Amino acid sequence: MQREALLAGGAAAVLSALVLAVVVVPGITASPTDDRLRPSRLDIRETSLAAGDVGGETATIAVTTRLDHRGGPTGDIEVFYRAVDGDTGLVVDQATNAMGNISGDREVTSTVNLTVPREGAYRLDTVVYEDGQRIEQGRTTVRGVGSLVPAYARSSVRFHQFDGGTTIPPIEYSIRRVTDGKATVNVSAYLTNTGDETVDGLRVVLVARQADSNIVADRVAVPVGSVDPGHTATPASELTVPDNYSYYLDAVLWKDGVIVGSARTTADLNPQRTVPENQTREDVDLDSDEFAAETETVREEGTPPASNTPAGQSGPGFGLAAGVVALLGAGLLARRWSA
Question: Do domains 41-147 and 155-268 have the same CATH topology?
Fold first, then answer.
């Protein structure tokens, strides 16, 4: 009986000690599968890029990295980013994102902004550190940064692009009247708002440039007003230019003091010749006072060169021919006398 009492007392003591250990050290009864005992793993799943603020010289790139975590909690996590010039290999910008401890089986994201010159291509490196030790790294490339449009030059209103096999310019003109060698031309442009918001504060500057000299013959600014989404505006005005010349008609779109678009077409007011848009020189007489341009004389095909010899005087070419004829005549005369 005494033996049984001793066994019962020992069991009670062991049980009491176990309960006390559980209270004092809560993790002593954790199973081997508890997250706190599993090794931590952190992998880079993907890296995405987005354009941020774009200026005239630089562009900001938002770099977002998705990290996949599995296992127990991590140590202190930091994600380091750097942008390296693809041609020179020089680091142009870098940033670090401190994420602290990560726990639980889940994906987390890290985002930083890198600012690079708005030209060339760049290599973007991503390095993950845990407690100062490198545990993961990735790399991506960005190209065409120069094609990003600066914020000051963005506008959803642009010159309309017509569909169809034949290219229709977004500028058209008609001749209103011709008086005293001056032609008055009505010029209009097609502007379409391709965005989702109404745009105002626009103006179009219409310019007529003489095709041969590139001299501006006339210019006028036309306010556009408000253009609703999906609508087309047709600002128009009259330009007065000297008749019988060919012109480039330019339309320049301005918004808040910045050029945001331009278009060009040709106007042939001399029906005897056609000036294509990519031709900058043409045989033309600019001796009149209508255009003060420095020109050079160009002969038309089949026209003999003009002589600089004054009237009544023989040029050097005529004197040489006369000498040859005289020499031949003297030879024939000598043969007759010898016969």
Answer: yes
pLDDT tens digits, one per residue of 296-316: 333 333 344 343 434 444 433
Residues making up the chain, counted from first to last: 339
What's the rounded Cα separation, in Å, for the pair 71 and 36?
8
Pick the CATH number of 155-268 from 3.40.50.170, 2.60.40.10, 2.160.10.10, 3.40.309.10: 2.60.40.10
Q: Are strands 232-233 and 236-242 parallel, antiparallel or unpaired?
A: unpaired
Give the residues across from 22 on adjacent strands: none
Confidence (pTM): 0.56
The residues spanned by each domain of the chain are 41-147, 155-268
**Tokens standing for residue 21:** 């250990």
Could you please report the per-residue DSSP string of 18-45? Answer: HHHHHHH-GGGG--TT-TTTSPPEEEEE
User: How far is it, in rounded angstroms, from Cα 116 to Cα 124?
Assistant: 11
CA separation for the pair 42, 108 (Å, rounded): 10
HSE-CB of 91 using CA atoms within 13 angstroms: 6
Whole-angstrom distance, CA of residue 165 vs CA of residue 43: 52
pLDDT tens digits for range 233-292: 999 999 999 999 999 999 999 988 889 999 999 999 876 655 555 443 344 444 444 443
Q: What is the dihedral of CA 325, 326, 329, 330, to 10 degrees?
A: -150
Cβ pair 293, 215 in contact under 8 A: yes
- CATH code assigned to 41-147: 2.60.40.10
Measured between alpha carbons, how far is 66 from 102 in angstroms, rounded to an integer? 13
How far apart, in whole angstroms, are the C-alpha atoms of residue 52 and residue 324?
85
**Alpha carbons 91 and 82: distance in angstroms, whole number:** 7
Q: Are 101 and 73 in contact (CB under 8 A)?
A: yes
Taking residue 236's Cβ as centre, other Cβ atoms within 10 Å add up to: 15
What does the pLDDT look like over 70-82, one tens digit per residue?
999 999 999 999 9
Other beta carbons less than 10 A from residue 66's beta carbon = 14
Give the gyration radius of the chain's Cα atoms: 43
DSSP conformation class of 187:
E
